[in-house]
Amino acid sequence: FKPHVVAWRLPRALGVPWLAYAHGWTAETWRVRLYNVLERRLLTQPDHVCAVAPPLADALRAAGRDGPLSVIPNGLDASPEPVSAAERAAARQRFGIDSEDCLAVAAGRLSPEKGFDLLLAAFARAAADEPRLRLLLAGEGPERPRLEAAIARAGLERRVRLLGQVPDIRPVLAAGDLLVVPSRTEGLPNIVLEGLDCSLPVLATRVGALPDLVHDGTTGWLVPAGDVGALADGLRRAARAADLATLGERG
């Protein structure tokens, strides 16, 4: 919101065009929700706006944007080499994951819109039926104390690890069998591109551009946002699937 206020003033003063970007919005507090309303109104003004996903472009049109508007998805430089068996084994050893475990991984800012509280609730249900399930969650943020308390309440300390902020996400992804993206809202999350680059199948909510990235039943599974039961079912399905590697390679 604040950079757009500055940009709203500068082009007039400098006589240059204004190109703006829309990456998505969160809604964790009343102040953030107010900023979002103001930002959408401001984004009616630029000479051109780029959004990372069609739902964001639709939201801007609904807010009154009638000028040029492009959808340009996020991109990723593909790794020169896929994750090898040796890299995978080393990564799993680093995190203490046995070869027979089914490891779900997730990553992102520990904030409400990312839905990691929903993931922990779903994992607790699925883990009761699937003793092979493990979870690594990489990231830092204001929700960490609540997530730690949820792990303790469910008695999952030996099966769930909060890694904090990591300098390189590839070892986490290389160790995993499944990437989980439980977001309540999204634009086009880079973590999915990174997971697909590491040949991971993806269990994700049906928000933002995620349906464009994850082909349900082919490269992973899509579930409704906020549905803990569906997320738990997805984790169970992954733990029992014999073709996880094939789904990841398709991705």
Topology:
Elements lengths: L1 H13 L4 E4 L7 H13 L5 E4 L2 H9 L6 E3 L13 H10 L7 E6 L8 H14 L3 E6 L5 H11 L5 E5 L5 H6 L2 E4 L8 H8 L4 E4 L4 H4 L6 E4 L4 H13 L3 H7 L1
Parallel strand pairs: 1-2, 2-3, 4-5, 4-7, 5-6, 7-8, 8-9
Helix pairs in contact: 5-6, 5-10
* Radius of gyration from CA coordinates: 20 Å
Order of helices and strands: HEHEHEHEHEHEHEHEHEHH
Strand order of the largest sheet: 6-5-4-7-8-9
Instruction: Please mark out the parts with pLDDT under 50 across 5 or more consecutive residues, or reply none.
Output: none
Give the fraction of residues assigned to helices: 40-55%
User: Structural class, from helix and strand content?
Assistant: alpha/beta
Please state the average pLDDT score: 93
Percent of residues in β-strands: 15-25%
**Helical segment count:** 11
In whole angstroms, the N-to-C terminal distance is 34 Å
Taking the sheet with the most strands, its summary is:
6 strands, parallel
Shape: elongated
Number of E strands: 9
Describe this structure in words.
It is built from eleven helices and nine strands. By secondary structure, it is an alpha/beta fold. A six-stranded parallel β-sheet has the order 6-5-4-7-8-9, sandwiched between helices. The chain has a three-stranded parallel β-sheet with strand order 1-2-3. It is elongated and about 60 Å long. The protein starts with a helix and ends with a helix.
